[in-house]
Amino acid sequence: MGISTAVPEEHRADAEMLWDYHDMGHELRRCDVGVGLGSHDLGVADHIVELYGGGWFPLVVFTGANAATTVERFPRGEAVHYREHAIELGVPDAAILVEPKATNTAENIEFTRQALADREVESLLLVSKPYQQRRAFATAKKVWPEVDIICSAQRTPLDDYVRAIGDADRVIDMLVGDTQRITAYAERGFAVPQDVPAEVEAAYRRLLTAGYTRRLVQD
């Protein structure tokens, strides 16, 4: 069986429930720094470019080394490739800092904090994959609680995102995995707690039962 680029209709409502849950819905406001969290998704860099061009921040930090899912696409590291892409799209090199060592979201935030240690930073505009927003927010509030955190991502319908990634199962697996991490990481002290509404928990459980378990963290 080939890879499907369409969300299965029997799981659509549950996948969209999780998709909407992870969208923080923050209203944009000008911040001191825009932080692009490294991943497989070059749309993060595209969105940083858009926001920088809109004047939402004067300085960009791209953060991220590699993961198993990104090393082939970004062999020199996620942050390095994001920087190159942003420069190609018109962001001045002088406006970009690269943090090339982080391998998880907590490190993204902590190493960004270290990279900005000589600057006065009161607010961050965190840019991530659409379904990473809530986890990024919860992690940043734990790791760097002194700063104001605004989250943003490309406002892409789920179906369009799945087509761009090219693998519906992979996207749903990631939605399920990030939903688990909201609770699991708070329990482990990696992130601040977030409310998980009953309908979100129910959708998550149904997708688990349907076999979307490949991105879960283990106990």
UniProtKB/TrEMBL annotation:
Organism name: Saccharopolyspora karakumensis
PANTHER family with a match to the protein in the record: DUF218 DOMAIN-CONTAINING PROTEIN, INNER MEMBRANE PROTEIN, PROBABLE PERMEASE
Cited CDD domains: YdcF-like
Name recorded for this polypeptide: YdcF family protein
One Pfam assignment: DUF218
CC terms in the record's Gene Ontology section: plasma membrane
Domain spans labelled DUF218: 44-146
Top-level taxon in the UniProt lineage: Bacteria
